[in-house]
Design goal:
Layout (H helix, E strand, L loop, with lengths): L1 E4 L2 H11 L2 E2 L8 E5 L2 E7 L4 H16 L7 E10 L9 E2 L3 E4 L5 E3 L11 E4 L7 H9 L2 E5 L2 H11 L2 E11 L7 H5 L9 H10 L2 H30 L3
Parallel strand pairs: 1-4, 1-5, 5-11, 7-9, 9-10
Antiparallel strand pairs: 2-3, 3-4, 5-10, 6-11, 7-8
Length: 237
């Protein structure tokens, strides 16, 4: 079992929920443990389709050359909500995942029995484009993320089962994020703290927004990680 964590806050939540332990002093190296009958490896991969594809291809290649066998890949973390009727902290279980760039569609078949609902759109980058977000929602998408379609793409090409566990951590219409903050986010999901400090000095409201965002996304990441644990245990049935 391989569990992917795009951002540090998601990695923290997954490590806690799965009870995995570090394998080296470097926190970027895989963490390992066991949940039910599954040997679990957790890897922090960074954000976005390119990093996701590269990490998965590397891990599959390592597995093929004597590394840990991979029989299921899970991606757990937060997503951006599109539906005004779904609160922050709502777990989604999409039936279809779509790559916004290629238009490729992937049918989600997770091991848990929770009902599937709506679609999830995977973007190349974070966006606050209101018009496009409304159009996605009108087309049946409940949320957007930056990794799930890439996970599905690589896993299906490799003949490996996969599942997605996402919880709404923010909503574009709540106004907690703006383009300045997105630009100050590194590819690994961490923040450029010097730039963020400069932004806060110029606009103190950003600090209040980021504090609320931190609390809400951390809680959402926790719920997503716990859902992934339930999915892992369901594999034992």
């Amino acid at each position: 079992m391989l569990v992917l964590a795009p951002m540090p806050l998601e990695m923290h939540a997954i490590v806690k929920a799965f009870g995995v332990q570090p394998t080296t002093a470097d926190e970027l190296d895989p963490w390992r443990g066991q949940v039910g009958g599954s040997d679990v490896k957790v890897v922090h991969i960074g954000m976005g389709p390119p990093l996701t594809r590269a990490a998965l291809e590397r891990l599959f290649d390592e597995s093929a050359h004597g590394g840990d066998p991979i029989d299921h890949v899970m991606n757990a973390g937060i997503c951006g909500g599109l539906d005004p009727g779904l609160d922050v902290g709502t777990l989604i279980n999409p039936g279809i995942i779509v790559d916004n760039t290629s238009g490729a569609e992937f049918r989600h078949q997770p091991p848990i029995d929770d009902p599937l609902a709506g679609k999830l759109m995977t973007m190349e980058a974070a966006t606050l484009n209101t018009e496009r977000s409304r159009r996605f929602f009108a087309d049946g998408f409940l949320a957007v993320d930056m990794e799930s379609a890439a996970v599905a793409e690589v896993c299906e090409a490799r003949g490996c089962a996969w599942s997605i566990y996402r919880c709404i951590g923010d909503r574009y219409f709540d106004g907690l994020l703006d383009e300045r903050v997105i630009a100050a986010t590194n590819q690994d999901g961490s923040g450029n703290m010097a730039e963020i400090a400069r932004l806060i000095e110029a606009d103190p409201q950003i600090a209040k927004n980021l504090d609320r965002l931190r609390r809400e996304t951390s809680h959402a990441a926790k719920l997503a990680a716990e859902a992934a644990v339930r999915g892992c245990l369901a594999l034992d049935r």
